[in-house]
Amino acid sequence: MVGDRQQLRRDRRRMMTHVRQIAMYVSHVVLQVSLTDIGVAFGRDRSTVSYSCHVVEDRRDDADFDAFVSAIERVITAVFPPAGDAAHA
Q1: Digits of tens for pLDDT over the chain (89 positions)?
Q2: Is the pTM of this model over 0.90?
Q3: Are 69 and 26 spatial neighbours (Cβ–Cβ below 8 Å)?
Q4: What is d(CA 35, CA 7) in angstroms, rounded to the nearest whole number?
Q5: Are 70 and 63 in contact (CB under 8 A)?
Q6: DSSP assignment, residue 39?
Q7: Which domains does the chain have, with CATH numbers?
Q8: How far is CA 32 from CA 1, 54, 58, 82, in A?
């Protein structure tokens, strides 16, 4: 029983790490926020943010993961249009 709880904790921690990495990646790639600013926002170092971006980029070779991240990017772009977007000028 104790082993099951430890495994659940480990799985939960891993899932939260993946979610945070995706959030950092989208913040940098889509929103063009600097690595330093993202690090401050997430309570991490800029090198950790850089690593997270590389991890997500490498995982995009998987079609399902790429589709998932692409969907998140579309939502973020819809909510936060790029600066200078003619539709909002």
Answers
A1: 667 888 889 999 999 999 999 999 999 999 999 999 999 999 999 999 999 999 999 999 999 999 999 999 999 999 998 776 555 44
A2: no
A3: yes
A4: 32
A5: no
A6: H
A7: 2-80 (1.10.1750)
A8: 45, 15, 19, 9
